[in-house]
Amino acid sequence: MGSSSAPGRGDTGRAGDKVFSGAALAAGILILVVLFAVAIFLLIQALPTFGANPADVSGGAGFGRYIFPLVIGTLIASVIALVIATPVGIGVALFISHYAPRRLSQGLGYVIDLLAAIPSVIYGAWGIAFLAPALVPVYDWLATYAGWIPIFAGPASGTGKTMLTAGIVLAVMILPIITSLSREIFLQTPKLHEEAALALGATRWEMIRMSVLPFARAGIISSVMLALGRALGETMAVAMVLSSGGLKASLIQSGNQTIAAEIALNFPEAFGLRLSELIAAGLVLFVITLAVNMIARWIISRHKEFSGANG
């Protein structure tokens, strides 16, 4: 009886594998179909803008001149956020995973995770009500003593609603993403690697530098790129913190705008060619995000050879 029941269990297992494999394949295909459908929708809706008379597009100089400042503003805000959030996030993750006592690390980990659950409009309200006014004296000081640097040229904004403020708000928003993912990767570092480094006389920091960071390199890049995607597409927080205006080289002057904030502020009242312009801007943001993710996958594939098994 044992020999007759074994094939039955094997057949059931193979059938389950086929069902699961088919479901996973269908889910993957569905994602590609949705992505392709979104791209086609954006392209079709944006075609009137690409074929319109340049004088009829906002700004009166064509879509290229209209979208260029928005693209630059989007990239500047995202870069500021990454420059601030990446070292802080990695440092906090290392503290939680390798330095903090167990009780403190658990509590701090919960707090970091809770930051990711706060709605973006709350961050925007905090930025406009507290952070922006608090930064006005700092901007005045930068304009006075560091104004010879183009990014700190005056006159400084009297409201604090600048690109630098928006970048700081974005940095706080993406900090939980970098910290949480990096922390999980750091905790997965093989203990044998860490113990071997310590046994050879390495300090804790030397052990982290030689064992933990190389192992987590691909994961850190993934967390940073995921955070970059959040920063590129953020709408309400940036729209609330930024003052509308043209592209400015200075980060402490009023002005600048991002693609997502431009769409969020103008889409409800848009119609006709203006609506097509905003959808075309969304298409540009879609392409930028897709390009960033493709570059991230390429970078990760170059460093994925280091792991706990083959390191």
UniProtKB/TrEMBL annotation:
<feature type="transmembrane region" description="Helical">
    <location>
        <begin position="162"/>
        <end position="181"/>
    </location>
</feature>
<keyword id="KW-0472">Membrane</keyword>
<feature type="transmembrane region" description="Helical">
    <location>
        <begin position="20"/>
        <end position="46"/>
    </location>
</feature>
<protein>
    <recommendedName>
        <fullName>Phosphate transport system permease protein</fullName>
    </recommendedName>
</protein>
<feature type="transmembrane region" description="Helical">
    <location>
        <begin position="66"/>
        <end position="96"/>
    </location>
</feature>
<comment type="function">
    <text>Part of the binding-protein-dependent transport system for phosphate; probably responsible for the translocation of the substrate across the membrane.</text>
</comment>
<feature type="transmembrane region" description="Helical">
    <location>
        <begin position="278"/>
        <end position="300"/>
    </location>
</feature>
<keyword id="KW-0813">Transport</keyword>
<feature type="transmembrane region" description="Helical">
    <location>
        <begin position="108"/>
        <end position="132"/>
    </location>
</feature>
<dbReference type="InterPro" id="IPR051124">
    <property type="entry name" value="Phosphate_Transport_Permease"/>
</dbReference>
<dbReference type="InterPro" id="IPR035906">
    <property type="entry name" value="MetI-like_sf"/>
</dbReference>
<dbReference type="InterPro" id="IPR000515">
    <property type="entry name" value="MetI-like"/>
</dbReference>
<keyword id="KW-0592">Phosphate transport</keyword>
<dbReference type="Pfam" id="PF00528">
    <property type="entry name" value="BPD_transp_1"/>
</dbReference>
<keyword id="KW-1003">Cell membrane</keyword>
<keyword id="KW-1133">Transmembrane helix</keyword>
<feature type="transmembrane region" description="Helical">
    <location>
        <begin position="212"/>
        <end position="232"/>
    </location>
</feature>
<feature type="domain" description="ABC transmembrane type-1">
    <location>
        <begin position="71"/>
        <end position="296"/>
    </location>
</feature>
<dbReference type="InterPro" id="IPR011864">
    <property type="entry name" value="Phosphate_PstC"/>
</dbReference>
<keyword id="KW-0812">Transmembrane</keyword>
<comment type="similarity">
    <text>Belongs to the binding-protein-dependent transport system permease family. CysTW subfamily.</text>
</comment>
